[in-house]
Sequence to fold (144 residues):
Amino acid sequence: MTAVVFVLNGPNLNLLGSREPDIYGHDTLDDIAGQLEDRGRDLGLEIDMRQSNHEGHLIDWLHEAQASGARAVLLNAGAYTHTSTALHDAIKAITIPVIEVHLSNPHKREDFRHQSWVGQAALGTVAGFGADSYVIALEAVARL
Ligand code: DQA
Fold:
């Protein structure tokens, strides 16, 4: 059975490609999904890529990842990273590894992005490498 990795994306990430490209780059979420599928084939990992602008969907999907026996979750929670105690608790409530992912490096940006509720519960964080942050995080899953 192929190991599945959930890749969960939060608010405004559906606009990648046209959203502040100087910060987030020109790749769309579909482009990133393609890059992950290509790398995942080499690594023996299947990608389940999702995006929602709603916090509760992300929480439900974290629960589903655990219940379905997924190998791990890559989570780019967008701005919920910096606000959501509920996402923090959801990550703590499951036992599979969750890796925090960001295209940009939030620590180099505004002060309000320096706090990460996700990062305080996640196994680790990959940030600042653009779309490659996702691929590097997938490679980290393969090494676990
Ligand atoms: C982001 C960083 C967050 O601060 C921001 O709110 C996003 C995108 C990133 O991938 O760099 O929506 O998660």
About this structure: The beta strands are 3-9, 45-51, 72-76, 98-102, 124-127. The chain has five helices and five strands.
